[in-house]
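Interim report, section 4.2 (structural modelling).
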Amino acid sequence: MALKTYQKKRNFKKTPEPAGKIKASGKKLIFVIHRHEASHLHYDFRLQINNVLRSWAVPKEPPAEKGIKRLAVQVEDHPLEYAKFHGVIPEGNYGTGSVKIWDAGFYELKSKTKNKIEFILQGKKLKGNYVLIKTSYGSKPDKSWLWFKV
Ligand code: MN
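Predicted structure of the assembly:
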């Protein structure tokens, strides 16, 4: 199942994060961006795809304007209810540190292939047409994508 990796990494008796039970949401697709102050500050970009949140860790602030390209390293799918999660993951747990919602909203999927996702974000900070495209750049080439506004 899509959430197996997510659930395996965490002990839900010790972290306030959701275990992942909700199977479906409304008709509109959601996205969320978490600001995660873990061992390294990063942003987690999450798009609802097939009733989970497909997730990417982005080492720098998300691209609010055209011309900025961000490396986005795909991580494990997260449950839909993670979109509402914010708080502190206690020490000794996976992803220890503070998690805040940096932006959230709905999005419209324009196209999706194995290597490219085109979508329109309707958030507070991020609005407009975006692309995620597979790249072999970075230290995890099989998980690396580039994320930018078009
Ligand atoms: Mn994270």
